[in-house]
Amino acid sequence: MELPKNIILDATAINNKLRRIAYQIYEANTTETEVVLAGIDVNGFILAKKLKTILSKISPIKPVLCKIEIDKKDPRKPIKTSIKPQDYQDKSVVLIDDVLNSGTTLIYSVKHFLDVPLKQFKTAVLVNRNHKKFPVKADYKGISLSTSLHEHVQVDLDGKDWIAYLN
């Protein structure tokens, strides 16, 4: 039996949440000329691209995109980034994903960036759930949900009608 889908965020709400997160990133980086927006492939990178567009409009900061490729089933495998470590060294980095559930993907991605000295490191997620098994938190979050372990949060960023739902 398939459980019903309950819409958490529609396209308008997602855009509003991302706009607020972009302002928070700007406020935390007012003295920076560049900020690296590192999006976890696939949805985190889509969100990073949207945040780059918004940040470019609201601030003088130059956002630099970085795509992170991580095996979500085995995050201990080597992680690939679309830019070289020297391109984010001594910079402010924001790690972006769609849903923070157990924290596994985020913690292994954070670990990857700790091999290089950074000026500042923050995390941003669209949906923050409270089922973490690792000590990782979202510095910027669109929405926080208290859900049961049997519920699943799905974020659909295909097409123009973005949606986040719980089933």
Q: What does this protein look like?
A:
It contains 4 helices and 9 strands. It has 167 residues and is an alpha/beta fold. It has a 6-stranded mixed β-sheet, sandwiched between helices. The protein has a 3-stranded antiparallel β-sheet with strand order 1-9-8. Strand 2, helix 2 and strand 3 form a beta-alpha-beta unit. The longest helix has 18 residues, at 11-28. The model has no long low-confidence stretch (mean pLDDT 91).
Largest sheet: 6 strands, mixed
> What average pLDDT do the residues reach?
91
Report strand %: 25-35%
* Element pattern in H and E: EHEHEEHEHEEEE
Report the span from N to C terminus.
12 Å
Q: What class do helices, strands and sheet pairing give?
A: alpha/beta
Give Rg in angstroms: 15 Å
How much helicity do the residues have? 25-40%
Q: How many helix segments? A: 4
In a nutshell, what does this entry contain?
By secondary structure, the protein is an alpha/beta fold. The chain contains four helices and nine strands; from the N terminus they run E-H-E-H-E-E-H-E-H-E-E-E-E.
List the main descriptive attributes of the protein structure presented here:
9 strands, 4 helices, 167 residues, alpha/beta
SSE inventory with pairings:
Blueprint: E1 6-9, H1 11-28, E2 34-40, H2 43-58, E3 62-69, E4 80-81, H3 85-88, E5 92-100, H4 104-113, E6 120-129, E7 140-145, E8 153-156, E9 163-166
Parallel strand pairs: 2-3, 2-5, 5-6, 6-7
Antiparallel strand pairs: 1-9, 3-4, 8-9
Helix pairs in contact: 1-2
